[in-house]
Specification:
This protein has 403 residues and is mostly helical. It is globular and about 90 Å long. The two termini are 31 Å apart. The chain has a domain at 7-82. It is built from twelve helices and no strands. The longest helix is centred in the N-terminal third of the chain and has 49 residues, at 9-57.
């Protein structure tokens, strides 16, 4: 009989992440329930006491009072307030609304009330959200390219100081002769640190503006910045909603710039953090690898002998961060579970393929073309990932080693 194939790495990582997310949600629900539930119960008790006292003092029946309060809640949901507020559906207000729609922030302080408006929102949001996600991905690609350029310049300067680069070294085709820069990519941890510092700085500056203009305390301003920039958008705090401000035009422009840059920056930071989480999942999977299968464990023991040459070992010793995942799959096909040693013919062929990949990447780098290499013809167009994950795989060092 043919045995069922073991769970592959991608499915194992998916199931492990699903389990961790479920545990994370359960832990978060437990903490928030413990923190907020007593306050909610106390507030409900105070409100019931106030309602009964008001009904008794002014001789108003509780059903009539509750009906009046329901009408007030409906008016409040429609955007009507006791104090004067800015118009919700003038052009600046409508522009603020569509911005929160396409960015998926969705504060909820303004919602369409007509049937035509709700139908139009469905069509408008479908294309608007898709285009905005594409804009975020393009921003991520450019910010990573900019950080890579700056970090590579710092890397070259460090090598020049240590004497590993000639003083007259310039970027270009000459880089193919320098082994220290072949296939160099920025570290995902350095990029995460830079994006984290930039996001914190941006949030602190925006919070200072909101504290001065809106009158919030600084903690509430920081809370609003995170909820808005991360597109959570609870709507309990919403900026630029008063009827008038001092220097109103300048404040609205600054509010728009801060929200736009904050959302783009936090989106990029979230994607970098997701790569780090993926690496942690890979590390956990490697720790549990083959522990449930004695046959595979024995095979891995035989492969660990002193004279054994495993596929890809030479590339791992040189620590060249290049996109050669397809090569590893084709070289090791049919041998990962058998425990056989690689022959000299296969080792020579592997080196020839590696040399061809290196020459192709150097040629494309010199001519300004993207370095997308795929020699495994069994892979389809989605094998390298799509969207932000593909961008990170192409531009950061640790991602190519994590799969």
């Amino acid at each position: 009989r043919r045995r069922l194939a073991p769970l592959n790495e991608d499915n194992g990582r998916f199931l492990l992440l699903a389990a961790l997310i479920a545990a994370y949600l359960s832990a978060g629900a437990t903490v928030f329930s413990a923190l907020e539930s007593p306050s909610e119960a106390a507030a409900q008790l105070r409100w019931n006491r106030t309602l009964h006292n008001f009904s008794r003092i002014f001789n108003i029946s509780l059903p009539e009072l509750r009906a009046f309060l329901r009408s007030y809640e409906a008016a409040m949901a429609a955007g009507i307030r006791v104090d004067a507020l800015r118009p919700r559906w003038d052009f600046p207000g409508a522009f603020y609304f569509v911005g929160t729609v396409v960015s998926t922030i969705g504060f909820g302080m303004t919602t369409p009330a007509t049937v035509a408006g709700k139908v139009f929102l469905i069509v408008y949001g479908l294309f608007g959200c898709a285009g905005t996600i594409l804009f975020f991905n393009l921003f991520l690609e450019r910010i990573i390219s900019l950080l890579a350029f700056i970090m590579k310049a710092c890397h070259e300067r460090q090598l020049r100081r240590s004497g590993l680069l000639p003083p007259n070294f310039r970027r270009g085709p000459a880089m193919s002769g320098v082994g220290s820069l072949v296939g160099w990519k920025p570290s995902v941890y350095h990029v995460m640190l830079i994006l984290g510092i930039f996001a914190i700085t941006l949030s602190c500056c925006a919070s200072a503006m909101y504290t001065a203009v809106e009158g919030w305390n600084y903690v509430d301003s920081l809370y609003y910045c995170f909820v808005t920039f991360s597109t959570i958008g609870f709507g309990d705090l919403v900026s630029s909603q008063n009827a008038a401000y001092q220097n109103q035009g300048l404040y609205r422009f600054g509010n728009f710039i801060f929200i736009l840059m904050g959302v783009c920056c936090i989106y990029s930071l979230f994607n970098v953090i997701s790569i780090v989480i993926k690496q942690v999942l890979n590390w956990v999977l490697k720790k549990f690898e083959c522990r449930c299968c004695p046959k595979c464990h024995k095979s891995s023991t035989r492969l660990g002998r002193r004279n054994a040459i495993t596929p890809g070992a030479r590339l791992r010793r040189h620590n060249i961060s290049m996109d050669t995942d397809g090569q590893y799959d084709s070289d090791t096909e049919g041998r990962r579970l058998s425990g056989e040693l690689i022959s000299m013919r296969e080792l020579t062929a592997s080196n020839k393929v590696s040399l061809a990949i290196l020459q192709k990447q150097l040629s494309e780098t010199a001519n300004g073309y993207p370095r997308n290499v795929c020699i495994n013809t069994r892979q389809n167009g989605f094998s390298a990932g799509v969207g932000a994950l593909a961008i990170m795989n192409n531009r950061l060092a640790e991602t190519s080693d994590s799969r």
